[in-house]
Design a protein that fits this description.
33% of the residues lie in helices and 17% in strands. It starts with a strand and ends with a helix. The protein is built from eight helices and eight strands.
């Protein structure tokens, strides 16, 4: 079983979510389908047959953290996965590896599965090993039992520029030599390239942004990798 993770980012509304759930409920897969809508839409997924994930969470389970979202509440709403450390959180909201480690800890305590995003920037491509090693260094002492590591090179997110199969394979092999967790790939995945990337050795699934923003294109990817 591999993972197919849909990251809606800040897209969708109440009506869209209802339709998406209906359409996705007609699709079955041998793989784990995880849909990550914005927080306010999570309630709309209570009858969804697939797994539910959030795109972020607070590092604490409750308290005086105005504007933050409790991982406890996410659990109550049916989430079993939470994405942490997405590159947009790191770059736009200045999240650090230390912040991500803190979030990881609370998720592990609450038995929520963390999807930890890592990846190098365009100008760091020559030093990807150094960058990724730094981003995963805290994981050496963490219990990764329920974690997924999402490798997402920043220069590939939203750009339609994809690393070669060899490049992805090399990164996945390196990560697997360092940490004991499934490794997914994310960055400009669509129905035409999904199958090739999905089948790269050491790749345990895909994290999909834009191509998951309609149930039609996400379903197409699911069908492609199923064949
Ligand atoms: C993402 O933002 O996690 C992502 C993979 O986006 P896209 O598929 O649109 O490149």
């Amino acid at each position: 079983m591999k993972f197919l993770i849909a990251n809606w980012k800040m897209n969708g509304d109440l009506h869209f979510a209802e339709q998406y759930v209906q359409e996705m409920n007609d699709i079955s897969s041998e793989h784990e389908i995880i849909i990550c809508p914005p927080f306010p839409l999570l309630l709309k997924f209570k009858d969804c047959v697939h797994s539910l994930g959030a795109q972020n969470c607070c590092f604490a389970s409750d308290g005086a953290f105005t504007g933050e979202v409790s991982p406890n509440l996410l659990k109550e709403l049916g989430c079993t996965y939470v994405i942490i450390g997405h590159s947009e959180r790191r770059t736009i909201f200045h999240e650090t590896d230390a912040d991500i480690e803190q979030k990881f800890k609370i998720l592990s305590e609450l038995k929520l599965n963390p999807i930890v995003c890592i990846g190098e920037k365009e100008n760091e491509r020559d030093n990807w090993k150094g960058i990724l090693s730094k981003q995963i260094s805290w994981m050496q002492n963490a219990n990764l039992e329920n974690a997924i590591i999402a490798y997402e090179p920043l220069w590939s997110i939203g750009t339609n520029i994809i690393p070669t199969t060899n490049e992805i394979s090399e990164v996945a092999k390196f990560l697997k030599s360092q940490i004991d967790a499934p490794v997914t790939y994310g960055g400009s995945v669509n129905a035409s390239n999904a199958c090739t990337i999905f089948n790269i050795p050491n790749i345990d699934g895909l994290l999909i942004g834009r191509a998951s923003w309609t149930s039609k294109s996400f379903a197409e990817i699911i069908r492609e990798v199923e064949e």
